[in-house]
Each structure stands twice: as structure tokens, then as C-alpha cells.
Amino acid sequence: MKNTQRHLQFTVIASAAFLAACGGSEDAGSNRGALIDTPVVLATLTAAQIDASTASSGLQAISGKAVCDVKVVSLNYLTPGVKNDTTNASGVLLIPSGTAAACTAPSALVAYAKGTDVQKPRTLANPADGETFLLTAIYAAQGYSVVATDYIGYAKSGYSFHPYLHADSEASSVLDSVRAARSASKFLGYNLSGKTMLTGYSQGGHSSMAAHRAAEAEAAAEMNVVAGAHLAGPYNLSGSLSSPGVIAGYQFFIPLLITSWQKVYGTVYSDVKSVFKAPYSDYIETLLPNPTLDYTTLITSGKLPAGPSPTQARDALMQAAFVADVATSKTNGVYVAALKNDLLGWTPKAKTLLCGGAGDPTVPPALHQTVIKADFDKRGVTTVTSVDVDATIQAVYGVGTPKAAPTDPTSAAFATYYGNYHGAYEPPFCHQRAKLLFDSVLLGK
């Protein structure tokens, strides 16, 4: 069949599926993961180009030199909303190519869930995106195919909001991206091996674990999940609410969380002004994710408080009575919603890695990774290992001789170190450990 005929046939079928799904049905059903648009190869990054970028950034010490070129493919697929209504999500498929054996053999598929994003238009289907390039260098250039979702409510998705840290819809977005990747690979004439690995970072660690749990419980006959690597994720949401500490980035993450859960459940609060102080309460419910502002401009525009400390940001943004009630009341709407989205109490069948850094000020492992590992251990789960990359982060990015985390909270070094810890320093080292797990599973070790 000629390419133009294939494109036309695909478009007609996909459009029919989308229109049928959006025609009033309350059940996403068999259309889950169906491609809406013809998958398009946006760019091919050569091994030489990848090596030049990883060498200049210092990433090559972690990723190694590229073995394969990588095709960057845009995806747009059907997936359920929070009420099992049908919507869509976009994303990216990274396909290894070239002449080396690792680039031509049917490849395992790494399904990735991204970290928290405040920018509504951003898509991972962008060769210049830093998170996309990290996936390219560590996985795709080494012979893995990678599919990464933008989630519902972002990029091409028509959903009215993003259900942040909502385990069920996160899981659906990830698992349906796997289905979309399979269809796109077949359409493009590329073969997958049938083995799937699940990983994600930060919010994505919560998402990938939710997807791992759902895949083994509900889709085991369809998806051969051979490993999971869940990185710096907030798995113990309800337990973390009573912590006296205030996380870095509070003014972004907490409003997104609270307003999202209110839209999902409708029971988090009865009056937004009882939760947020003016002027933020006037617009907070529609602020995030934002169509034009990023982390920096949300602050510089005055849409969110700057702080400068997380505690000061919290106190400027939140009603003190509500904050106290969240920390102490088991009937508070935030706590009740958090319980529904905790990820404790399940048992992974596939080999599973937990990774984080003990110094993480945004998703402290003591509140999440350590707690969930203890939960696995007390139930005799033997498939899960946990690693702490803090010593490596200190050795590379710390100050002094030998290098160590800065301790003076008033110093510029302290602000730089902890300001970059979760978003820049930690991800590559955890992805390195994830790939080591994936490699070992493929080698049967």
C-alpha cells in the first residue's frame, strides 16, 4: 500500500474511533490507546548528535556513548478521564535506529511518566526538551524504545484539567501510551519485543507505580511487564500530610494538588476562600497548569508567592486553619483524597526499583521511599530493592574537599544545591540505576 493510502486509511479509522468514543459513551472501553493522529517522525537524532550533547553537558559519564540513532515520533491517543469518560493524551515515542544489532533487533519498551509540569502547552514530543533528551540518551540511544505520556490536561489533550497525583488516571495515561506505542510502531514498520518496563520521576514515580500496580492487576494477559523503576515519587501521600516540614516548591505543587482533587472528588473544600488567601483564591482554581506562565514567571508575575522560604510561601498562600486541619484531621477532604491515591499495600510481581536521594527537599525519601519500602518489607515482598543516590549527588555537586552538601542555609551554595537537587541533580543518577535494572532483567540476571 502506498504511504498516502496508508495515511488516509489510518486517519479515517482513527477519526471514526475518536468520534465514536466522544459521542456520549461513558466507557472508554476497547478504544483505549487508539491513535487519533497518524504518528509523525518529527526528527532523527544521530548518535553523533546525541554524543555531542551528552559530552558537552557531562551526561555522557552516566548515559555512555550512543549506540543508536533515535527517531522522535509524536503520538496522540485515546484514554479515559477521571469518570471513565473518553478523552485524549499526547506524548512521544523514541525509536532506536541504525545498523548495530541493538538498534535493529525487536526492542523492549520503556514506558515513562514525566515529573510535575506547570506549563499546559508543553509536550515531550519535542527533540529539544531536556526531559525527552534524557530519555533519548539513557534509554533510546542504547537500544530501548521509549514511550512517554504528556498526561491528560496537557499539550494536545482536550481535557478541561489535569488530575494531578490521581493514581487511576495516571495509570490509564501510561498504560494507554503503551498501547499507542505498539500501534505506532507497527504502523511505522518497527518491531517491539513485547517486554515492557515502567518508570517515572517525581510525579511520574507515583504515576509509573500506579501503572505498574494496574498492569499486573488488570492487564497481565495483555502486557508483559518485566520490571518497574519508580524514581523519587510521592507514594505515601496521606502519611506525608502530617509532616511538620514544608517541601520545596510548595506554592506550585500544593495548589495543583488541592484544586485537582477538588475537581476529581468535589469534597476537598466547599469554599476556595477557606483554603487559599486573597488574592490567590480569586483565580487559583484555573491557574495550574498554565497556558503561558512557567515556574519562574508564575512567581515574577505575582500569580504565586515567592517565599523566599517554603514556609513563607505556604503562609502567604494558605489559610492557617486549613493547613492545621489537613495535618491533624482524618476527615479533612485533602486527607481523604490522599488515602485514595496512596500506593502502599500492593505486591509487585516484576522486579522493582525504588530510587531517590536522601537530601531531596521536594519529595523527601523519609516520607515516601523509606515508608513504602518498609511496607513491602513487613509484608515479605522480595521483588523490591531501594537505592539512595545522595552520596553520589554530594560527591558531584557538593562543596568543599571532599565535596559534601552545603550546610549554611543563608549561603548561595545552599540555595543552588537544594534548588537544583530534585529537578536537575537527582534524575540522571536514578535513571542510570533504572537502566541497570532493565539491562539485568533482559540479560536474565
Major sheet: arrangement of strands: 1-2-3-5-4-6-7-8-9
N-to-C terminal Cα separation, in Å? 43 Å
CATH architecture identity of the largest domain? 3-Layer(aba) Sandwich
Share in β-strands: 15-25%
Helix-residue proportion = 40-55%
**Topology, number of strands:** 9
The shape, in one word, is globular
Please tell me about this protein's structure.
With 445 residues, this protein is α/β, with parallel strands linked by helices. The protein folds into two domains: 3-236 and 352-442, Alpha/Beta hydrolase fold, catalytic domain (Rossmann fold, 3-Layer(aba) Sandwich); 248-341, no CATH class. The protein has 16 helices and nine strands. It has helices at residues 3-21, 47-57, 60-63, 101-104, 130-138, 167-188, 203-218, 237-240, 250-265, 295-300, 310-317, 320-328, 333-341, 369-378, 390-397, 412-442, and strands spanning 40-45, 69-80, 86-97, 107-113, 145-149, 192-201, 224-231, 351-356, 384-388. A nine-stranded mixed beta sheet has the order 1-2-3-5-4-6-7-8-9, sandwiched between helices. Helix 6 packs across helix 7 (203-218) and helix 15 packs across helix 16. The chain is globular. The two termini are 43 Å apart.
